[in-house]
Amino acid sequence: MQIFLTLGVILVALILFIGEILPPDTTAIIVAVTLMLLGLVTPDEGIAGFGNSATITVMAMFILSAGITRSGALQMVKDWLVKWGGKNPHQQIFVMGMIVGPITSVINNTAVVAMFLPMVEEWSKKQNISSSKLLIPLSYSTILGGMMTVVGTSTSVLASGLSKQLGYQEFSLFEFTKLGILTFTIGLVYLGIIGPYLLPNRKPTTSSLISQDYELKDYVSEVIITPRSSLVGKTLRQSEIQRKFDLDILEIIHNDTHFPQPLADKILSVGDILLVRGKRQDLLSIKDEQGIEILPDVKFGTQDFEKEMISGEEKAAEILILSNSRLIGSSLKELRFRQRYNATVLAIRRGQELVRERLGKVPLKFGDLLLVQGPKQSFIGLQTTREMLVLEERDLGTLRQDKAWISMTIIAGVIGLAATNLLPILVSSLLGVVAMILTRCLKPGEIYGSVRWDVIFLLAGLIPLGTAMDKSGATQWLANNLIQLGGNLPGYWVLSFFFLMTSLLTEILSNNASVVLMLPIAIKVAQILQLNPYSFMFAVTFAASNSFMTPIGYQTNTMVYSPGGYRFLDFMRIGAPLNLLMVIVVPFLIQWLYGI
Questions:
Q1: CATH number of 314-398
Q2: Distance in angstroms (rounded) separating the CA atoms of residues 570 and 137
């Protein structure tokens, strides 16, 4: 009965994960609560994930990554891209990969992608190439680079914790570094040689085409207030025109003077020209009611249109919704986005979907790309928020550049203490957090915002599932059935089977969920067949982080999905051969390096 109940909980969890009915972290907590209610784990075991060494280590690494990014240490490598990148696409991918790969071996890869996305966008514009030629390689390089050390990804840290929980040793910092370096090299060679032929040209190569990229010409218009208009003498707030209709006032032009945001309290006069975001049909329907006239299309050549949208102190830029953003799930109207950030959203890009109507009512998701217009000063504020990422090079004034070398020294110290076994990874990483705060690389209040709480709750909720599988006998039952199916196969093929299954599972679940489900079964099969359990642990750990076929299988893939203007199948075209290559090569390398 306990096996049946445990497998039932796993099945429901799989449905929730695959269907994206709830956020993954919410699903994980529901799983933990369900296990406690069914008596499959005790209350102490149900909440043990919050105090697990893997969970705390992952949390500490998020904070250390934030210290590096806030200090601007990663900005120092920008010149390397320009100096060695060249104009050849093969060379550009190789150089970018060689820079970001080693960095992500010690810094969380989502933080690295967040820092390099604007750099690559700017670099692409200067080189006059499409950023879609570089953003998938950026994501893949950080995924591959993260597997060079145990702290490179939360998946590796979790696998190390599960190893200890299942009666084996935790992984040392460089436990599988040789394997990680080899897989990174193989992956980068593939990306550098084959990538340019498979990667699409999805995005305009010049910034002046931003309006065409978002097809705004039919959604941004100029209207003039006539003498008969009911708006004369009123402020925008009093007129309630933005609240009643699906439109936004981007700018007011009065006697050739441009008034930027905020505009709510500006008094409207006869002859004022309003730059408006809204469907032309909607403007026509309120034309007589409000007493406005739409200015002729002749004013809107491509260059004139850009000048109207970006003039004087005004600018427009793309902004990415990050995975730990509190904006996720809320609409622009609920967030009072215009009032909070003093900027207006003109359009939302979600993969290939482009949203330009009823923007205020669209719930935001991780990976959404917002085209935002507003005063230049507002974008400085947006660059400092942890909710969003402005896809342009960061204002250096928002970074603590005097702390760059200090933060890098702290990271080096954390690695050195863990590598020499003077301190466990958990203790050295927490010591690094304290050092970041004492040296003012991070302010105390910033540590909470730097943690990916969705990942922390995901780990804490899933760890009890591994306990329930072990206690109920579900792991043993699944292992026995797998052995009946393929127990007579050579060890390499059994290892390859677990690599393939975990890799496929990662494409539809989170990488951490795949490790929790597959690692205990892999260890049990290895024990029964008297094979090397560590080889099976490494196979599952690497497979869980090798997610290349979809934009939703790994966080960094989701981050580059909309900015690169990619289609879903673009990831399949370049990622499927890479996944297949890893399925063939990695088990062989594990057998060669660690034995079976």
A1: 3.30.70.1450
A2: 12
DSSP assigned state of 148: G
Q: If you search the block for the tokens 């489900």, which residue do you land on?
A: 517
Decide if 132 contacts 155 (C-beta within 8 A): no
How far is residue 516's CA from residue 129's CA, in Å, rounded to a whole number? 41
Instruction: For 559-584, write each residue's pLDDT tens digit.
Output: 888 888 888 889 999 999 999 999 99
pLDDT in tens, 401-439: 778 889 889 999 999 998 888 899 899 999 999 999 999
Q: Within 13 Å, how many C-alpha atoms sit on residue 160's CB side?
A: 27
Beta-carbon contacts of 561 under 8 Å, excluding residues fewer than 6 positions away, are 351, 367, 551
Using CA atoms, how far residue 242 sits from 186, 344, 370, in Å, is 54, 12, 19
Dihedral of CA atoms 68, 512, 105, 367 in degrees, nearest 10, equals: -50
Q: Cα separations (Å) of 203 from 92, 296, 306, 529, 566?
A: 17, 29, 17, 52, 8
Taking CA atoms, 161 is separated from 52, 165, 169, 331, 370, in Å, by 8, 6, 9, 38, 38
Q: Cα–Cα distances in Å, from 402 out to 119, 405, 450?
A: 20, 7, 20
Are 130 and 124 a contacting pair, CB within 8 Å?
A: yes
CATH fold label, 218-299: Alpha-Beta Plaits (3.30.70)
Residue 96 is predicted with a pLDDT of: 92
Segment (H or E) for 587: helix 568-594
pTM of this structure: 0.83
**3-state secondary structure at position 347:** strand
533-545 helix and 491-508 helix, angle to the nearest 10 degrees: 30
Two structure tokens written together for 54: 């893997």
**Mode of pairing for the β-strands spanning 273-277 and 344-350:** unpaired
Q: Which amino acid is at 531?
A: L
Other beta carbons within 10 Å of 242: 20
Query: Cis before residue 587, ω within 30 degrees of 0?
Result: no
- Of 271, 336, 253, 255, the C-alpha closest to 263 is 253
- Would you call 294 helix, strand, or coil by DSSP? strand
Burial code (b: 16+ CB inside 10 Å, e: under 16) for 526-559 equals beebebbbbbbbbbbbbbbbbbbbbbbbbbbbbb
Residue 268 pLDDT class (50, 70, 90 cuts): confident
- Cβ neighbourhood burial of 396 (10 Å; 0-12, 13-18, 19+): exposed
pLDDT of residue 299: 46
65 contacts 497 by C-beta, under 8 angstroms: no
Here the tokens at position 501 are 């299954």
Tokens of 95: 């150089």
Confidence of residue 215 (pLDDT cuts 50, 70, 90): low
* Counts for the chain of helices (H) and strands (E), in that order: 28, 10
The residue among 327, 407, 408 whose CA lies nearest residue 366 is: 327
Looking at the chain, the domain(s) classified CATH 3.30.70.1450 span 218-299, 314-398
